[in-house]
Amino acid sequence: MGSDLPTLPASPDRLLRVRKLAKRYVRGGVWGKRVPVIAVDGVDLEIAGGQTLALVGESGSGKSTVARCVARLEKPDSGQIWIGEKDVGDLSSSSRLPLRSAVQMVFQDPVTSMNPRFTAVEVVEEPLLIQGLDRERRRKVALESIDEVGLLRAWADRSVMQFSGGQRQRLAIARALMLRPKLLVLDEAITGLDLSAQAQIANLLQALQTSHSLTYLLISHDLALVTRMADAIAVMAGGRIVETGPTSQMMMAPKEQETIRLLASARAAQSRLGALTEASA
Question: What is the pTM of this model?
């Protein structure tokens, strides 16, 4: 990973390319002994511009670590992350500013990334502070983004804590769009919402993908959401990608045992949820 951003062979149809990505942590063990943990071990993946890749796997498989490395919230130990033709895997803090514009992340719980003392418009306009825009211009652009995600401008000066979970996720998406990114990393961004809100946010993300030519890296364990949104699926286990392919192929004819087991487990969980929902109706 070079800090001088080497120009690589053109790949106009691939917005994100990850090669041999590795990340390790050191955690406390028995008797205070430090134990190395391999979170990501030589991951390769790529996403064509305007497409959605779903990265799936059990808890602890390494998928969220990959997401955080792509967004540069974590520094990889080795490997390359290319956005377009640039290797951005080892950027310094000062060189990372352009990447923040190109790649934005939307988390599962938006409250953790929002100042509870801020109003909705202040939360959304926050990324523009680093751009040096004046307050009037920031507010204008933020209000336009609030409109675009389906919230009312009349609510712009309410505290973010007055919004529901689904509405706060809309605000998080509006904020992510402020720097006109090319790639959105969606880390369980719809998990935890009720079914109605999940469907609405999924519809919104698909509409925004079309209108803004966005590319998505979708981290999810929700089989229905993955089937609906993803063009391709990559399955992780033990820090590695064990299988990848088009969504229809992966759902209908998975080849690896880990994929077969994961899909069977997800389908069983959905069947139980459906039965509980029907019983409580």
Answer: 0.88
